Fold:
Amino acid sequence: MSQPLPVYALLPIELVRGSNTTVWDAQGHPYLDLYGGHAVISIGHGQEEWAAAIATQTSTLGYYSNSVRIRIQEQAAEALGRISGRDSYRVFFVNSGAEANENALKLASFATGRRRVIAFDKSFHGRTALAVAATDDPKIVAPVNETPNVTHVPLNNIEAVRAELSAGDVAAVIIEGIQGVGGCRMPTEAFLQDLHAACTEFGALLILDEIQSGCGRTGRYFAFDHAGIEPPLITMAKGIGNGFPVGAVLVHPDIVVSNGMLGTTFGGNHMASAAVKCVVEVMEREGLMDSAAERGQQIVSALRSAPHIAEIRGRGLMLGVVLDQPSNAVRTTLWKEHGILTGSASDPNVLRILPPLTLTAAEAERFTTTLITVLSELPA
Ligand SMILES: Cc1ncc(COP(=O)(O)O)c(C=O)c1O
Structure:
């Protein structure tokens, strides 16, 4: 009997149902979801309007290709432009985060006629050819993906970036608004501002990968918005579909794109577009960006003097709680004994917190109180 390829380290539970911030396993046990299937669930599990928007679109016209006008795709683009405050940008829809980065990198190369890409240490940009080459994890780079065209430099080191830019032929610099898989490592605001200026100076295009840190999770629509910069290319996925697979590249109006340069069979399809439009409308109506900022501050303040916490990184509802030891045992105690799901990161000491943006104050308090109890029981 065929089985899914065993490439994932599975938590030994089967989730069968979800409602807002809670998911239930096959035995009926509830779990408070502080992980959101890593940052994917933005407006809540099983959100009724979202389910209805997709179902209605599916039964009206489920699919037709990008060879015809897709009005719901135009409405989804308009919604993303509106909520992100970038309605002059155009939107190229794809199906995943990796594809969004792949296409943004390709656009940068087309636009500049250059070959090289600068990326950062501990970055994660996906698993397609160029996206994985830009990712700093040799374990997932196959020999066919190895390329001399991508150089990794240390995060927050503008001199290292400038040295590579001066060496020439750089099409793009790609950076996460906050490094997710890397353990919620943050570029500083000053670094992002300097990076933007250096890219402009050397004619390279800055790509902000907001696939995990975007969609309002940090209290602004994009994490880089806190630095007040305007990158020419922005990539999105995860939260914009609330679980419906969809990604997007926001493209600055100055970037010239010609007919046929990019394309996709499923990107921007009717169902995905209905999901994106609905997620934006719910976020706007429920004020979920403000709420994400408030809940994040609540969690950080509550954990400030908790034992065994070395540092808390991140912003809003994208937090990396760095312990003074590996976080795995704490994560296990949280889900097994307290019914709370949290995430890990490539840094083994990090507990990643990426809940739906609908997390309530009472749920945030339940999480912090439980975590403090679990940490207090660890040997000093
Ligand atoms: C910052 C970032 N970029 C890109 C990706 C790749 O997205 P996908 O898995 O949808 O291809 C991820 C996924 O975790 C991510 O966190």
Q: What stands out?
A: The radius of gyration is 20 Å. The chain is about 35% helix and 20% strand. Residues 96-98, 101, 124-126, 176, 180-181, 209, 211-212, 237 surround pyridoxal-5'-phosphate (CB under 6 Å).
